[in-house]
Structure formats: structure tokens, C-alpha cells
């Protein structure tokens, strides 16, 4: 009986770690941007800024819903 060599997932693990680092960097940038009020001067805030922020919030909600099985991704 011949045994098959153990299959490793080293390539998948490396790709996962690289993608996680990419996401972590994006999250850090977004956190910093949020702390700076998304680059908006409160004295010059207008409804266009609100619309842009709403669009970004909707995109993040899609990611959050997918990640946690909520919203349209709920079982």
C-alpha cells in the first residue's frame, strides 16, 4: 500500500495572510480617516458629503453583513 504525500495548504495560508494584511491596512486607513471626520471641514459640510458617507456606510454594511451572516446573508 502506497501512502500519498501529505497535502499542505502553505500557498493558501500565505495568500490568506497577505490578503488579511491588506484588509488590516485598509481598516487602519479608514479608522484614521474617520478620526479626521473623513477629511471634511465641519464648517464646509454639505449634503453631498452626507451622501458620500452614506454610500461608504452602505458598502461597509454589505461587507459586515457578509462577514457575520446578517442582512441578506442571514441563514
Automatic annotation (TrEMBL):
It comes from the Bacteria. It comes from Paracoccus amoyensis. This is Uncharacterized protein.
Amino acid at each position: 500500500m502506497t501512502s500519498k504525500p501529505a497535502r499542505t495548504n502553505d500557498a493558501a495560508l500565505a495568500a490568506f495572510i497577505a490578503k488579511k494584511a491588506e484588509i488590516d491596512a485598509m481598516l487602519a486607513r479608514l479608522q484614521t480617516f474617520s478620526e479626521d471626520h473623513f477629511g471634511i471641514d465641519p464648517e464646509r459640510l454639505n449634503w453631498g458629503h452626507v451622501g458620500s458617507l452614506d454610500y461608504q456606510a452602505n458598502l461597509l454594511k454589505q461587507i459586515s453583513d457578509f462577514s457575520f451572516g446578517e442582512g441578506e446573508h442571514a441563514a
